[in-house]
Amino acid sequence: MNKPDGKFCLRIQTAVMAAFGVAVMLALPTMALAQAKVAAPATGGNHTALFVGSATCGECHGEVYERWQKTRMANVVVDPKVHPEKVLGNFGTKDPLVNFSLADVAFMYGSKWKQRYFTKRGDDYFAQPAQWDVQNHTWAAYHAAKGTDWWTAFYPEPNEQRPTGPLCDGCHSTNYNIVTKQVTEWNVGCEKCHGPGSEHAAKPTRVNIVNPAHLDPMAAVDVCMQCHSQGQPRQNPIKGVYYDWPVGYLPGDKLSDVWKLEEHKLGEDSFTHWQDGTAHKNRMQANDFVQSAMFTHGVTCWSCHDVHGTSNNADTLKPAMSNSLCLSCHAPGSPNGPTGTTLAQHTHHAEDSKGSACVSCHMPQIAKTIANVNVRSHTFHFISPAETEQFKIPNPCTTCHAEKNTEWAKQQLLLWSNVSPWRVGQ
Ligand code: HEC
Ligand code: HEC
Ligand code: HEC
Ligand code: HEC
Ligand code: HEC
Ligand code: HEC
Ligand code: HEC
Ligand code: HEC
What we know:
12 strands, alpha+beta, 3 domains, six-stranded antiparallel beta sheet, two-stranded antiparallel ribbon, binds heme C
């Protein structure tokens, strides 16, 4: 009865409740109810199968494997000795920030926004103090200062003393083992999203492998949220070590059993959030998305992205700027909105204008990844100029019309009869 995880206790209680109904439930002491609430019922992840690695999946799923291999998720972590062509940082000319050489680098992370460099000491990897800003083609210091990421309080200075195992690798690998510090493979392998596949690979059926599309929409988005969120494990430290990723989670499980999202108080600017609760930092697509009406209507991340790879930026199903992605579910007059009879009536810009691209107004680039480079917001909420006044969050109108001020944008919107002045004008 006294098993530390309380699972045995729970099973007994559940049986009691089922047998005797609500009356008994109400009669249970408060202690027992509190325990029942904490100990979660068995969830859907497969915790008995073993990890076999993406190459094994590729033997039967060749087409998916070929595409996936070219995605960024399959190439986040790279050894520069194996792939010298993937080194983006300029190691040719001297820079005071760069006090290490490529020969010291065991792994590089990233290729799109920033590239970071890691050295191996013992059985851990540690970050070098300079990172390459890919878009601005320049070196930048790399250091998580105290009071930024929550975990800086528990780790020594400088960055070079902070191991990537607990702080990074769970999200940049498949099956990171916190005891042996070994991985099945680096990068986001098939099984990171489909769960361990030994049973399926040995005897393929549709029920012994997780297909995120067949999970309920909440557990489904958890598959992406395990990495695309800022949060912390509910129980931390784990065996004395503070982790920044959801240790123990497998696809099909309920992520919130082991992970909580970074907290936010309305009206406060924080390291992670704007005052209104929109993400201010990269890797928060899921923190954002759960705030959208699309999430509560069963739209998932893969309603818009094919993570096995497409030829579009960010692996979207259709090119984002063309509007065809959004218009596959939305059209003026559709029950999903927007209101109006033509696109131009909704956007008040010519149909082919940048000011008519859905993403320009509903997915502004305001989540900082490095320097002045931002990734897109995923709340899909239109941030009005009135919210800029109230919450100091940039609105898409004056971000694009940089020469105009907030008051101008507010006045313009008040002229738009299709949007409510109660929602955007004050
Ligand atoms: C020996 C061949 C083989 C291997 C290896 C294999 N699969 Fe499959 N997989 C299949 C077959 C066949 C099906 C279709 C089964 C059916 O329709 O009954 C399938 C179906 C699936 C499905 C779809 C399930 C659904 O809901 O329709 C997924 C997802 C999947 N495999 C992922 C994987 C992953 C991930 C791996 C690696 C861990 C893997 N497979 C390894 C043969 C294989
Ligand atoms: C980043 C997460 C992720 C990774 C990595 C991933 N998948 Fe998937 N996979 C998904 C999601 C989500 C779906 C459901 C998508 C849908 O139905 O639109 C899916 C669907 C599938 C399916 C069934 C539908 C289809 O397209 O045939 C197969 C088979 C599959 N994946 C195999 C693989 C294999 C093999 C790999 C590795 C080479 C892999 N996946 C890597 C997330 C992932
Ligand atoms: C193991 C952690 C992990 C999981 C699980 C994961 N991602 Fe990712 N994802 C990453 C990392 C890391 C990157 C950054 C890759 C890079 O830039 O090198 C990334 C990048 C992306 C990108 C941008 C790709 C580009 O080319 O710009 C998209 C889109 C994306 N992920 C969607 C998803 C979706 C949808 C799911 C769930 C089906 C998912 N991811 C699951 C870690 C993960
Ligand atoms: C909870 C999961 C998680 C943790 C922990 C994590 N990352 Fe990431 N990382 C991601 C995801 C998801 C992305 C891509 C999405 C985004 O940046 O908005 C990403 C993106 C990146 C990129 C940019 C890739 C590119 O192509 O520009 C780098 C570099 C990176 N991470 C390094 C690190 C380092 C170093 C650590 C540890 C200090 C770390 N990450 C911790 C999930 C994680
Ligand atoms: C798979 C279908 C689908 C796709 C693709 C899609 N949407 Fe939606 N969207 C919906 C549904 C369903 C709703 C909820 C409608 C309702 O409230 O009744 C919605 C709601 C919205 C809303 C209302 C506010 C909110 O909280 O989300 C906005 C804004 C929106 N979508 C923008 C977009 C944009 C921009 C794109 C393209 C990047 C897009 N949608 C792509 C299905 C979709
Ligand atoms: C120039 C800016 C702008 C562009 C571009 C834009 N929208 Fe909107 N959208 C708005 C505003 C403003 C609202 C009203 C917001 C509110 O009431 O809080 C809105 C609201 C919506 C809503 C909620 C229902 C409604 O009509 O109020 C949906 C759905 C929506 N937009 C979808 C889209 C789609 C899909 C596209 C691309 C085809 C798009 N929007 C392009 C500014 C824009
Ligand atoms: C309604 C459509 C839609 C949904 C749902 C959606 N995304 Fe996106 N996502 C986009 C579009 C559009 C872009 C921008 C692509 C571009 O700029 O070319 C994007 C960009 C990204 C990027 C690249 C970073 C950037 O902003 O350039 C990542 C990572 C990402 N999405 C992850 C996710 C994850 C994880 C989820 C689920 C939690 C998700 N997305 C849900 C439409 C969507
Ligand atoms: C991504 C860029 C972009 C965004 C976001 C955008 N616009 Fe525009 N806007 C333009 C462009 C480009 C034009 C030039 C005419 C055209 O293409 O339709 C324009 C023209 C205008 C005009 C008419 C000419 C002028 O300058 O007086 C008004 C008014 C206007 N926009 C208001 C707004 C408002 C209000 C918003 C926010 C709801 C907004 N715009 C968002 C790009 C943008």
